[in-house]
Amino acid sequence: MTGYIIRRLIAVPFMLLGISFILFMLLYVRPGSAAFAVVGSVMTDPEAQARFEEKFGLNDPWYEQYGTWLWNLVSTGSFGDRLTPPQDSVTGKLIEALPNTIEIGLLTIVIAAIFGISVGVLSAIRRNSVLDYITRGVTIAGLSIPNFWIALLLVTLPAGWWGWSPFAFEWTSFTQDPFRNLYYAVWPAMVLALASAAGTARLVRTSMLEVFYSDYVRTARSKGLRERSVVWSHVFRNSLIPVITLIGLQTGAVLGGVVLAELIFGIPGLGRLTYDAVIAQDYPLVLGSIMIFSLVFILVTLAVDILYTVVDPRIRY
Amino acid sequence: MRDNENYWKRLRSRPVSRRGFLIGGGVAAAGGAAILAGCGDDDDDDTPTAAPATQAATATAAATATAAATTAATATATATAAPTQDPNAARRGGTLKLWKAAEDAGLDPGVFHLNNTEVIYSTMTQPYTYQPSKDLISRDGMVGWEQVDPTTLVWSMRPGMKFHNGDPVTSEDVAFSFSRLPELYTALGATHVTNTGFTYVDTFEATDELTMTENWLSPNADALIYRARHYYSFINRRLVEEQGSVEGTIELADGTMKDIRSLQQLPLGSGSGPFTMVRRDAIGTRLERWPDYHKHTPADDGFVEDGPFIDAWETRIIPDSAAAKSAFLAGEIDVYNDVDPLELPDFEGQDHLSILEFPAGGYAHLGMDGGKFHDKRSRQALQKAFDYEGFIAALRPFGGTYQGPVANTLPHFALSQEELRSYYRYDPTEARALWAAADFEYPVDHLTVFMATGNALQQQIGEFAAQTLGEALGIPTDVEAVDNNTWAARALERAQVKDWDLLAYGLGTSGGTTGLPNDSNLIHYDPRGYGNSAFNHSLAEDLQPRAEILADGTELIGMLERQEQEVDREARAQLLSELQHWVLDRHWCNWSLPPATVSFFGFSSRLRDFAPNDWLNFYDRRRESMWLADA
After folding, report:
1. Phi and psi for A49 in degrees, rounded to 5?
2. Which residue in chain A is spatially nearest to B48 when comparing CA positions?
3. Are residues A255 and A204 in the same domain?
4. Which pLDDT score is estimated for B306?
5. Which of A187, B93, B163, B237 has the fewest C-beta atoms lying within 10 Å of its C-beta?
6. Is residue A244 domain-shared with residue A180, that is, in the same domain?
7. Residue B78: its pLDDT value, please?
8. Local confidence band at A97 (pLDDT 50, 70, 90 cut-offs)
9. Contact B258, B183 (CB under 8 A)
10. Same structural domain for residues A132 and A167?
11. Is the pLDDT of residue B81 over 90?
12. Interface membership of A95 toward B (CB under 8 Å)
C-alpha cells in the first residue's frame, strides 16, 4: 500500500508537467494580447506593446517562455508575477483565493454526500413506493437543471419576492467569522451539491438494489439477521465502492462548477480568479490556478483509491 | 473597518461559566427540537412567516425614516433656537453601498478609469475644481483663478491642504501631478482618450507656494472642466517617487533618461480628497471620511458646511449583474446602474427603492475599417443599407432617437433630429448602387460585424446590423463575437487592413455627460483618439494611409482644434455644427445607430439629495450634500 502511494505521488509531478504543457500551448495559440489589459482604457501603440512583451518575455519563442516559467516554478516554487497590474505574485493571489474555494468545495461534497446517500438508501429500501418515485423524479430534475440556473434563481427570486438575498453580508473568511462565513458559503455549496447529490442518490439506489438480490444477502436474511443489519452491514457497505468513485469524480465537476458559483455569488475564490485571469489573458495566473485545480483533483483521486481499501478489504495495491 | 482579529482566538480567550454552558446547551436542545418540528411541517407556512418579517422590516425602516425625519425637524428647530448645534446632524453618517463587476486593474488616476475606479478617484483624490453638476464648476483644491491672457491661466491654491498621511499639499506636488501625465503616456507609449485635456498645455509652473501658472500653446475652452477630472488630481510626489512602479523611461531634452512611475496601489497619502481608502481587496473597497479634509464653512458653491455628510463609501465586487440586481432588490446596495427596460416590472411594488428615468446619453456605433472602406461611397452605401426605423422598432422598446458626433445630451451643440435624419436614411436601392460604384483596394465580398461577448443587447445589435446590411447590399454577412479583451486587442490592432469589417460597440442605453463635446461622442471620430487606432484611419506614415484618408484626417484635426480653442459658446456651436456636417457628409470613421430615448437607473430610497441627473456623469458623484435617511 505504501509503495503504491509512493508510486502515485511520484507520478504527480509528471502529470502536472503534461497538464501545464498542454495548457500553456492552448494559451499560447489563443488570439489577443495581454498588453491591452495592462493599460486599461489606454490605447497602446505598437512600441508600447513591444516593450511590454519584451519585459515579460511574451515575444520569446514558446519553448523559451514555457521553459522559463517551468524553471522558475521548479527552482523557486513560484508561479511568477501577474501580467496585469499591480503585477504582484501569482502565488500570493492563489494562497488568498484557495481556502475559499476549498471551503466551498468541501461543503458541497459533504452536503452532496449526506443528501445523496440518505435519499439513495431510502429510495432503495422503499423501492417502487411513492417515496421512491418522488425521489427518482427529484434526482432526475437535479441532474437535468444546470446549476448556474439554479444559482441565478436562488439569487434573484427571493430578492424580488421577500427582499432577501444571500448578499446580506460581505464575504468573510471562516477564521474571521465562521457564522457569517457559513451563512454565505452554504448557498453556493447547496447549489453545486444539487446535481452531485442527485447523481449520488441514483447510484446508491442502483448499487444497493443490485446487492439486495445477491446470494450473500439472501444468506444473511435466511440466517435470521434483522433487516437493519442486513441493510447497513451487508448491502450498504458493499454498494459503497461505486459511490466513492462517483464522489471522487464529482470533485472535478464541483471544481468546474465553482467558477460559476463564485462569479454569481461574488466569492473571491480560485474560480473567480481563474475567470478574471482568462479574460485578462494573464497566462501566469491562468497556469497557476489551473495547476492548483489539477493538483487538487489528482490528490482527491488518490484519496479515493486509498479509501477503496478501507471500504473493501479485498482490494490490495 | 474589517475586524481582523481571529474569531477562534477570541472564542478561546472567553471564559465559559457553568451557567453559560447550561444556557447554551438548553438553547441548542431547543433549537434542535425546533428544527425537527420544522422538518415535519408543511412548506406552505413559509409565506406567512416571511410576510410578517418583511412587514416588520418595512415598519422598522419606516419608523427609522420617521424618526430620522423627526430628528431632522427637531434638529432644525433646535438649531434655530441654539445656533451652536449642527442643523445637519440628522444627515450625517452612514455607508453608501455600491457595486462593481470586477477588481480594478490599477488605481493610478492618471492611467485608469475602469470598473468604478472613478468612485475611488472622485472621493479620494482632489483636483483643482469640482463639478457638482454639468453646469456648475466649484472650487476644490483652489480658491480662485485668473485667465491672464488667452494662453496663460493662473490658479490660486487653497491654503492648508494635506494628503491623507499628513504631508502638506504643495504647489510642487501639483506641478508634478500635471507634468507627470504627458510623461506617463509617453512612457507607456499610449494615447489616452483624454489627451485633449493637456495637449494644448506647454508648461505647468509652481510660481510660489500657493500659485500655479499654466502656459498654453493655444487657447482652450474646456480647461476649467478638465481640471475637475480625476486624472488632474493632486498626487503626493514623495509617494510616487518612493513607492511608484516604473512604467517606462523617457529621454529628457538634455539627453538624460528619466524613470516614469505610476501609483498602481494608491497607498495611503496619495490623495487629499474627502475620503481615504481603508480597505481594498477581492471583496471590494471601503473609503471613509477623512476628518482633515478642508472645510467649506460657510457652505459655498456645491459644498456643504463641514461636509460631506456620508461617512463611508463601500463598493462590493459582484461579478454577475443578476446577482447585483438581487442585492439591490434586497436593499444591500444603494444604486443599480443601467436597468434594462425589460426588467422594469421586477422593480414594481418595491417601496425601498425607486427606478428613475433619464434621457439616454449613450451611444451605439458601427465602426468601419478605414483600410477597406477608404472610398466615401462604400461608407455611404453601408449607412444607407441600415434600417434605422426597423432598428428602433426592434431594439428600443421605449423609443429611439438619432444622434450625431456630438451627443444629444448637449443640445446646444448637437445637430437637430431633422438634420440627422437627412444623413441616416435607409435606402437599399441607393445603397446597392453606391456599393457597386465604390472603389475597393481590398475586395469586400463578405461583411463581418465584430463585437465583444457578454451583453445580450450588444449581441442583438450586432445581429441586427448583419441582417439589415446583408439584405440591403445582397452580400453574405456574419457576426463574430469574442471576449472583451480579444475584441479590444483586435479592434485596436494597427494594420493596413483589419481582420474585421465593422466594429459594433456601445449599447446606446445610458451614460452621462460632462458638458464637454470631446467627452461625448466626438472622441470616437477624432483621429487623435479612438478614430485613430480603432478605425484604422491612422495618419501614421508607416501604415501608408490613402491620400484621401490622410487629407480628410488632417482637415478634421484642424476643425477639432479650432472648436476646442473657441471660448465663445455661440461661435463654438457654429464650429461644431460645421464639423458634424463634415463628418456626416464624408461618412467618416463610424456611424451612430439610434440610441434609446430614455434610460433607467435604480436608487435606494434612503439615498437623498444625490442629484440623479448628475449621477449619470461619473465624474460628479462626490456630491457633498448626499445623505442617507437611515444613517
Report:
1. -65, -40
2. A162
3. yes
4. 81
5. B93
6. yes
7. 36
8. very high
9. yes
10. yes
11. no
12. no
CA angle (A220, A226, A231) in 5-degree steps: 70
Q: Which residues in chain B have Cβ-Cβ distances shorter than 8 Å to A87? A: 245, 264
Residue A176 resides in a domain: yes
Distance CA B120, CA B113 (A): 10
Note whether A33 and A136 are same-domain residues.
no
What's phi and psi for B275, nearest 5 deg?
Answer: -125, 150
Q: How far apart are CA A9 and CA A301, in angstroms?
A: 11
pLDDT at B49: 31
Q: What are phi and psi of A65, to 5 degrees?
A: -60, -45
Question: Tens digits of per-residue pLDDT, B218-266?
Answer: 999 888 888 887 778 899 999 999 988 887 788 888 888 888 888 877 8
Output the domain CATH number for residue A161: 1.10.3720.10
Indicate whether A83 belongs to any domain: no
Query: What per-residue confidence (pLDDT) applies to B195?
Result: 63
Tally of structural domains, chain A: 2
Q: What's the confidence (pLDDT) of residue B43? A: 35
pTM attached to this predicted model:
0.78
Q: What pLDDT is recorded for position B57?
A: 33
Residue B46 is predicted with a pLDDT of 32
Residue spans of beta strands (DSSP E) within B453-538: 477-482, 502-505
Question: Hey, is the C-beta of A44 within 8 angstroms of any chain B C-beta?
Answer: yes
Question: Is the Cβ pair B322, A164 closer than 8 Å?
Answer: no
- Is A119 near chain B, with CB under 8 Å? no
Residue-wise pLDDT tens digits, B148-205: 999 999 999 999 999 999 999 999 999 999 888 888 877 776 555 556 667 788 999 9
Burial B20-41 (b: 16+ CB within 10 A, else e): eeeeeeeeeeeeeeeeeeeeee
Compare A181 and B113 and report the one with higher pLDDT. A181
pLDDT at B184: 81
Residue numbers in A near B486 (CB within 8 A) = 30-32, 281
Q: How far is B108 from chain A (nearest CA, A)?
A: 10
Cα distance from B331 to chain A (closest Cα, Å)?
7
Q: Indicate which of B54, B120, B184, B188 best probes the interface with A, i.e. most A CBs within 10 Å of its own CB.
A: B188
**Interface contact A276-B102, CB threshold 8 A:** yes
User: Rounded to an integer, what distance in angstroms lies between the CA atom of residue B406 and that of residue B595?
Assistant: 13
Rounded percentage of chain B residues whose pLDDT exceeds 90: 38
Helices B484-492 and A270-280 cross at an angle (nearest 10°) of 20
Structural domain of A13: 2-76
pLDDT at position A257: 85
**b/e per residue B452-489 (b: at least 16 CB within 10 A):** beeeeebbebbbbbbbbbbebbeeebebbbbbbbbbbb
Per-residue model confidence as pLDDT tens digits over B356-389: 988 887 889 999 998 899 999 999 999 999 999 9
> A179 CB contacts (<8 Å, ≥6 apart)?
none
* The three three-digit cell numbers of residue B553, written as one number: 484626417
Are B482 and A156 in contact (CB < 8 Å)?
A: no
CB-based contact, A177 to chain B, within 8 Å: yes
DSSP A263-303: HHHT--SHHHHHHHHHHHT-HHHHHHHHHHHHHHHHHHHHH
**A292 in a domain, yes or no?**
yes
B288: which strand partners? Answer: B276, B312
- Measured in whole angstroms, the distance separating CA B617 from the mean position of its chain's CA atoms is 7
Cell numbers 457597386: residue: B436
Q: Could you say which of A51, A76, A101 is where a domain stops?
A: A76
What mean pLDDT comes out for the span B345-366? 88
Q: To which residue does cell 472650487 refer?
A: B139
How far apart are the CA of B16 and the nearest CA of chain A, in angstroms? 19
In a domain, A317, yes or no: no
pLDDT attached to residue B59:
32
What the block records as the C-alpha cell of B308 is 460631506
CB B441 within 8 A of CB B546: yes
